[in-house]
Amino acid sequence: MAGSERFLVTGALGCIGAWTVRRLVHEGVPVVAFDADADVRRLRLLMDEAQLSRVDIVRGDITNLSLLEETLDAHRITHVIHLAALLHPRFRSDPPLGARVNVLGGVNLFEAVARRAQRIPRIVYASSIAVYDKSDAADDVAIMHHSPAHPTTLYGVFKQAEEAMARVYFQDRGVSSIGLRPATVFGAGRDYGLTAAPTQAVLAAALGRPFHIPYSGRSHVHYADDLARIFIACARSGYRGAEVFNMRGVVADMRDVVETIESVVPRARGSITCAGPSLELPDDYDAAALEQVIGPLPRTPLREAVTETLALFRSKIASGEIRET
Fold it and tell me: What is the reported pTM?
């Protein structure tokens, strides 16, 4: 099967995208990295030059339907993983831009795949737990598969619109899709946004610097490599339909994150702190429905994820790719 696979990853220069591209390259699978950005620093963080040379990088805007179609055809794409999105802080002052990328961009991709349904059996795309609000969860009970969702941000609303769009494309055009709702993403390359703080804390520990995580409480954490494996497994599944799934990672209090970093880097004790309001999101999710599609989900323990991330950062510091000053 792998010999005939050709993957397109949109938003490939982001954190989850870079880890997904890395895993496909390690498997020897042809992959096209499609992104509006030109900054490949996250790919360079995860791959050496020889590995990077095996990635076809297409700089393009997801709102450009013609370019999407040209890319799908020129590279004979068979599998699509859609991660391109603008996160909430980046379009706070320009909501129409967020809608163009997160909603119109999704429509374009579904339309392009609908016209090539015989070659591309399904789309796997990233929704978000931002479709939920803290009030959607009962006390100490995981959010279930079909729990009602009431987003309180435009980002969550846009993602909810994409989920509804996917259902209609299956209903009207037979386009199968799997939507996945990541929570806090942890791992090298997670360097932007409020919930990048746990990863930034590990980098600070590797550099011998203090760092403050500006929120507290429990959070749902996914190791980036686990997410890459899940997205790829969904793309390879035989699933027919248009469903959206929650995933289960590791539930950790920010104090646990700090203590784990300190246990792995003893010299960091006292220099990594956390305080502030908790995230207004549910902190636990039931993944039984997704496991029925792809089997048990990878769930790297927090200490192992911190240790692997620290080792990667230290290797890049030693090589001069991450500067100590």
Answer: 0.96
